[in-house]
Structure formats: structure tokens, C-alpha cells
Amino acid sequence: MVTKGRKSRDIYVSRKFMAELYRYVTKVRGERASLSKTPQKSMFLNQSGERYGEDGKSLNRIISKAGKRAGIKVHTHMLRHTYATHTLVSLQRNPANGLDPLVFVQRQLGHSSIQTTMVYLHLVNEMADEAVLAMTMS
């Protein structure tokens, strides 16, 4: 897969996600592939059994529709921000794992500068400040 800056990436996934992926590959994908007129090599297939477009517009549409149903405006890049923020919070809460949370997130996102990643640290700190304020106000 070609990524921004043509950098290779490691992706860490939970056991639960792996179980869901296994279920998809062993059950759902086969059902979808049978709907296609031509054999498909792609792992992820749409409801017609065809591969998703490489331009990402299909994923954008899916996320946008889900956001509308939830009553919020969302876009795909928000997934990246959400991942970074939640990962940083999780790693800060569990320091025993020996990782530097900021460096880990930097590497995951492929940032060449730690300064770029520090935006997420400021966001996490703001969220913590808001939570403290909300607790003292109630």
C-alpha cells in the first residue's frame, strides 16, 4: 500500500478486532465474493462483492452517512485524530508498558517531527482540564 511519504507503517490491532477480521474473512467476504461476476483478490468487498475504489471515496461516503445518522458531521481523517488521541491517553494511563506515549504515536502516524505529534498531547491536556473543570462545577 502506498502511504503518504511512501513510508512503511506498523499497525497494531486488538485481539477483538482480529477476531472480527477473522469472522469477516471466513464468513462475510465469501458471501460477498459470490455476488461478484469476476473473482476478487481484495480483502474488503462492498455489498455487491466488488472491491472498494482506491480513491477512498467509498469510505468517505460510508463514514459521512454514519455521521449523518448519528447527527454529527464527520470525515475519514477524524479517524486518524481519534486513534492518535485515544492511543496517547491509553498509553499515558498505562506507563508500565515501557513505551514513551508521544514517540509511539509519532511513529504510528509517521510524523517526521515530534512537534507535529505534540498537537495531540495538547489536545489530551485540554480534555483533562475540561474534565476537571466539569467535576468542580457540578
Biggest sheet descriptor: none
Instruction: Flag low-confidence runs.
Output: none
Terminal-residue CA separation: 49 Å
Mean pLDDT: 86
* Radius of gyration, CA atoms, in whole angstroms: 19 Å
Structural class: mainly alpha
Number of strands: 0
Oligomer: single chain
Silhouette: globular
Q: Treating each run of at least 4 consecutive H or I residues as one helix, how many helices?
A: 5
What is the H/E string?
HHHHH
Helix fraction by DSSP (H/I, runs of at least 4):
55-70%
Residues in β-strands, percent: under 5%
If you had to describe this structure to a student in words, what would you say it looks like?
- With 138 residues, the chain is an all-alpha fold.
- The chain has a domain at 74-138.
- It has helices spanning 15-33, 57-70, 77-93, 101-109, 114-137.
- The longest helix is centred in the last third of the chain and has 24 residues, at 114-137.
- The chain is globular, with a radius of gyration of 19 Å.
- The mean pLDDT is 86.
Walk me through the topology.
Elements (H helix, E strand, L loop, with lengths): L14 H19 L23 H14 L6 H17 L7 H9 L4 H24 L1
Quick synopsis:
The protein has five helices and no strands. It has 138 residues and is mainly α.
Question: What attributes characterize this protein structure?
Answer:
mainly alpha; globular
